[in-house]
Amino acid sequence: MNRVVITGYGVTSPIGNTAEEFWESLEKGTVGIDTISRFDATESGISVAGEIKDFPFDKYFVKKDAKRMDMFSIYGIYAALEAVAMSGLDLENEDMNRFGVIVGSGIGGLPTIQEQITRMNNKGMKRVAPLFIPMAIANMAAGNIALRLGAKGICTSVVTACASATNSIGEAFRSIKHGYSDVIVAGGAEASICEIGIAGFASLTALSATEDPKRASIPFDKDRNGFVMGEGAGILVLESLEHAQKRGAKILGEVVGYGANCDAYHMTSPEPNGSGAAKAMQLALDEAGISPSEVGYINAHGTSTQANEKGESKAIETVFGDDSNVLVSSTKSLTGHLLGAAGGIEAIATLEALQHQFVPVNAGTTELGEDIHVNVVLEHGVEHTFDYAISNSLGFGGHNAVICLKKWSE
């Protein structure tokens, strides 16, 4: 079996479009949520979202790219190219038949779908854009990344709602661990902040109607009342330890465990007792070969909904008991919920926490709910000594995905 290491990452998010910006925001507890600026969402009753600011489009794209790809693909390509640049990979010297791409999306090109259906209704079926389908389908972030990189190994897209990116990273880990691939770029991309995206989740009563951006995404708080939509992409470069050492790569961390299962309980609500999420966490720890007491940080799914945190808190209690060494925070308090990309940027946040021995704050939360019995990091981030951390992603459909990361050591 191969050890699997992380040698690069790229991110575009509501709290930063570079590794440096992203870490600085995590360290300071900077909230990237604000009033929706792209359209008037008043009728939906929702007023805030985690929009990307000042996206550096010109760094890797030309004008026509915006007409050929939905923004979720553009976000994904950007993060992938940033990740490869950080990794120092020389693609001309790689066996690209063993270089893969596993990048998920929860919804795919939702703004394109909205735009083209509106166009069809207004102007007729003949006026639908020729590239509508390849712009909209959820696999095209992965496909477009492979095209840019020339990656000819496994290329697939995991669609498990809010667990998509974590499942993608886990599947990439397994592919390299078992020797099928040398290098895989893995993570998720999403761009669903549009009228139909906000309206759809609002109709489901899943979104927070709170107008104060600092109190809208408040995971584990007694007043939590719905998630805040975010957008962006988080992509990791995973490779076998042997491959990374052979080329003299700087190793950032190690993936040591992956757990995935299903609640098989409800379309949108998690199992109230958290049994599915608990089992997924335990599976990740089992593969890592560690005990719960060795884990210092849990990057929780923490969506700021009553049902999620009640179940996730119980799941953490089930696995970790009352071990006070395990600190918990949800970085969705800073970014909002990036749906299929959430696990990508949260894996990066977890990696950064390990590298800097620092646990980010669960921002905005002031008083824990009575049903919360875990050690949530409040007020400000804290320095913390730990070697292992896990990142949880729990998606509509009952999907549970957990990865376990280890601070790098030989």
UniProtKB/TrEMBL annotation:
InterPro entries: 3-oxoacyl-ACP_synth-2 (IPR017568), Beta-ketoacyl_synthase (IPR000794), Ketoacyl_synth_AS (IPR018201), Ketoacyl_synth_C (IPR014031), Ketoacyl_synth_N (IPR014030), PKS_Beta-ketoAc_synthase_dom (IPR020841), Thiolase-like (IPR016039). GO terms for molecular function: 3-oxoacyl-[acyl-carrier-protein] synthase activity. One of its GO terms (cellular component) is cytosol. Keywords: Acyltransferase, Fatty acid biosynthesis, Fatty acid metabolism, Lipid biosynthesis, Lipid metabolism, Transferase. Its EC number is 2.3.1.179. SUPFAM superfamilies: Thiolase-like. The active site is at C162 (for beta-ketoacyl synthase activity). Residues 1-407 form the Ketosynthase family 3 (KS3) domain. Pfam families: ketoacyl-synt, Ketoacyl-synt_C. Belongs to the thiolase-like superfamily. Beta-ketoacyl-ACP synthases family. Involved in the type II fatty acid elongation cycle. Catalyzes the elongation of a wide range of acyl-ACP by the addition of two carbons from malonyl-ACP to an acyl acceptor. Can efficiently catalyze the conversion of palmitoleoyl-ACP (cis-hexadec-9-enoyl-ACP) to cis-vaccenoyl-ACP (cis-octadec-11-enoyl-ACP), an essential step in the thermal regulation of fatty acid composition. This is 3-oxoacyl-[acyl-carrier-protein] synthase 2. It comes from Pilibacter termitis. The lineage of its organism: Bacteria, Bacillati, Bacillota, Bacilli, Lactobacillales.
